Prior knowledge:
The chain is mainly alpha-helical. The protein has helices at residues 8-13, 17-29, 34-41, 45-57, 92-119, 124-129, 141-156; strands spanning 2-4, 32-33, 61-63, 74-77, 81-83. It has 7 helices and 5 strands.
Amino acid sequence: MPRYLTDPEDLKALTHPLRQRILGRLRGHGPATSADLATEFSEDRGATSYHLRQLARHGYIEVDEQRSAGRRKYWRAIPSDLRVPEPADLDDSAKTAAAEVVRQWLENDLDQVARHWKERGADPAWDAAAMISTGTHRMTREELRRFTEEYVAFAKRWIRPPEDAPPDAEPVTALFMAFRTPEDAPPPEGSR
């Protein structure tokens, strides 16, 4: 079930760049402690703990009770389909936070694509399995809505916690964007 981020405070909780990095790390690599994350991100452990508590307070992560012992708390991402509604569906304070969250998501996504292309050739087997494809389709608004929901349903079939993945599994970024082509933009052609 999608979680539409309409609450300004839930959105603001995601506007901090370190929180975005922490959430992405927990989603992609599995549970970690505040000490692990502080070391990994070269951050203060107290600040990392604070940001973990804020993410948990807003329902993005939770304590992994099975791994935690005593004061050593492991945190894990809560599997979720996070979505930012259209600006017309948000109040003014939520619009500002939503714009910042989306900006950070797009910046991160574009950075990952750029790094992927820069590092191509380092592992030819993974390169051969990867693909970036663009295309132009003619759809109605309703068809586009169905198209995107079918993609999300398909992508969810491949989601599993990092600890349940086979030993040779690696994090894989799957980007999907579907929107009406701006009128003055040349349409993308074919696969790249």
